[in-house]
């Protein structure tokens, strides 16, 4: 797939999920680098930077995307030949993809330890990291049951219930607004993340904050499964994570909306769950309370404070 096609697929959500878009972007960058004809390293770098910008602008919230692109672009820091720069990008991209896949497996292994035999779980949206934990607990022979939400407006819950069904896991499929109705039947909420701020606040699919609030009220624990590259370095400087608002036609068909001139349809894709509603964040480096988010940014993302300015 050429770079512009990958960018379009990420934008349209044909490729979706914070981890998957990060890997797809990195693969697109590598492919672009492999075929880029440049006369000198500076031109090569400039062209790569333009490509990186096209990819990072596709979806503004999932921090995995700029973090992944940046980790590849850092390979271009100093080179005296185009070939050496190209090789460095290809090597770094392959390394990132391998790291990402391995991270999802590690999270599954660590997250499964927090799921007990007999647990009833609730998940929201379609997160490979969160589902990994659930599938691993089932694989280990734990008897679990899952509530999975529908996830308006894009309906990612359908992907989730297909995966759970294929694994033979007892699953209840519910509309998003039924979460509070069922929350007392749930032992543990397991969700993914698109971004995590330095204060431990979790940005995830719209509706997650309501679920976490209902869980908090019912004293039900909430765990978030997220690779370290979903932590947002710039939040150290107080920068907020931009919340994407997608096309309103995803919520209400345009022909219906057009007849309702006083109605403004809104379609925020993500919301922010405060750290106090999150019990644990499971990363590939281990499980941490949300209050330790800063240590992940400091220890694993390799950002230097001066680069943030
Ligand atoms: O990286 P993994 O764990 O797969 O997914 C993390 C999150 O990414 C998804 O975003 P979208 O569906 O692309 O908007 C969901 O919000 C999901 O919880």
UniProtKB/TrEMBL annotation:
Gene3D superfamilies: translation initiation factor eif-2b, domain 1, Translation initiation factor eif-2b, domain 2. GO terms for biological process: L-methionine salvage from methylthioadenosine; pentose catabolic process. GO terms for molecular function: ribose 1,5-bisphosphate isomerase activity; S-methyl-5-thioribose-1-phosphate isomerase activity; translation initiation factor activity. The active site is at residues 125, 194. Its EC number is 5.3.1.29. It comes from the Archaea. Reaction proceeds via a cis-phosphoenolate intermediate. This is Ribose 1,5-bisphosphate isomerase. The lineage of its organism: Archaea, Methanobacteriati, Methanobacteriota, Stenosarchaea group, Methanomicrobia.
């Amino acid at each position: 797939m050429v770079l512009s096609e990958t960018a379009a697929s990420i934008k349209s959500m044909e490729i979706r999920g914070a981890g998957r878009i990060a890997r797809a972007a990195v693969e697109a960058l590598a492919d672009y680098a492999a075929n880029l004809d440049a006369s000198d390293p500076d031109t090569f770098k400039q062209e790569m930077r333009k490509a990186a910008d096209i990819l990072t602008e596709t979806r503004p919230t999932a921090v995995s995307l700029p973090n992944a692109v940046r980790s590849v672009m850092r390979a271009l820091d100093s080179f005296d030949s185009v070939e050496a720069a190209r090789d460095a990008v290809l090597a770094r991209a392959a390394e990132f993809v391998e790291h990402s896949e391995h991270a999802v497996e590690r999270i599954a292994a660590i997250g499964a330890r927090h799921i007990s035999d007999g647990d009833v779980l609730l998940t929201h949206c379609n997160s490979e990291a969160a589902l990994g934990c659930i599938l691993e607990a089932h694989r280990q022979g734990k008897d679990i049951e899952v509530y999975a939400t529908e996830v308006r407006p894009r309906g990612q819950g359908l992907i989730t219930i297909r995966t759970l069904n294929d694994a033979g896991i007892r699953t209840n499929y519910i509309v998003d607004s039924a979460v509070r109705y069922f929350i007392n039947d749930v032992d543990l909420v397991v969700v993914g993340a698109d971004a995590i701020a330095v204060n431990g606040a979790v940005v995830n699919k719209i509706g997650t904050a309501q679920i976490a609030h209902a869980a908090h009220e019912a004293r039900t624990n909430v765990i978030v499964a997220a690779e370290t590259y979903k932590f947002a370095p710039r939040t150290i400087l107080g920068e907020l994570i931009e919340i994407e608002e997608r096309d309103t036609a995803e919520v209400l068909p345009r022909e219906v909306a057009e007849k309702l001139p006083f109605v403004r349809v809104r379609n925020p894709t993500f919301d922010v769950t405060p750290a106090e509603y999150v019990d644990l964040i499971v990363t590939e480096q281990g499980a941490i309370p949300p209050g330790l988010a800063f240590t992940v940014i400091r220890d694993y993302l390799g950002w230097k404070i001066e680069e943030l300015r």
